[in-house]
Design brief:
- The chain has 183 residues and is α/β, with parallel strands linked by helices.
- The protein has a single domain, classed as Rossmann fold (3-Layer(aba) Sandwich).
- It has helices at residues 21-31, 50-62, 75-86, 144-153, 174-181, and strands at 3-8, 35-38, 67-73, 92-99, 131-136, 158-162.
């Protein structure tokens, strides 16, 4: 039986070759024989609202049974961390993978209040044995300082610093595939 991955995509356009679509396609190719990747369309990705994304995430999580792997790309990672730290989740989370996610409230550029985490969010996360953080060192969209803030709040996480300036990972992310397979 295939393992289940729930992938929550980034904000912005979600058509072919946009947003998280190429990264999802890459993961589907690399993991096709052992993993089922669910990547729901999130509401209004070009004008996201936390409550709308939260309700869609609740719906998706309620459809899963047993163990699952959760991947959040950019805004999707922020939403996963916020939801998991504020709501109970009966699902066993085998791994949580956060890619290039903004840490809302960290600086004046990133101030969407409805996406901000509670101060002690890390203490309120469910028990997750495997947490991974990925971020390009020279990224232009979400500054690397956001990755460093998450790494500080989540010292148990494996923090992967990626060379270059990629945010969308259009050509894939081999270390992510290796980490998933290593669970």
């Amino acid at each position: 039986m295939n393992k289940t991955i729930l992938f929550i995509h980034s904000a912005g356009p979600q058509g072919p070759n946009q947003g998280s679509s190429n990264l999802i396609n890459y993961l589907e190719q690399e993991l096709e024989n052992s993993y089922q990747i669910i990547h729901p369309q999130m509401p209004a990705p070009e004008d996201p609202k936390y409550d709308q994304w939260k309700h869609q995430l609740e719906k998706e999580l309620s459809l899963l049974n047993g163990e699952a792997i959760l991947i959040g790309h950019s805004l999707g990672g922020s939403v996963l961390l916020k939801y998991l730290s504020e709501h109970s989740c009966k699902l066993t989370i085998r791994g949580l993978f956060i890619l290039a996610s903004p840490y809302w409230g960290l600086d004046e550029e990133w101030q969407l209040a409805d996406f901000m985490l509670q101060h002690h969010f890390a203490d309120k996360l469910p028990s997750i044995a495997n947490i991974f953080l990925y971020h390009s060192r020279n990224e232009k969209i979400v500054p690397f300082a956001h990755h460093q803030a998450y790494a500080k709040k989540l010292p148990q996480a494996a923090a992967r610093q990626i060379d270059g300036d990629r945010h969308l990972f259009h050509d894939g992310l081999a270390v992510l595939v290796d980490d998933i397979k290593g669970l």
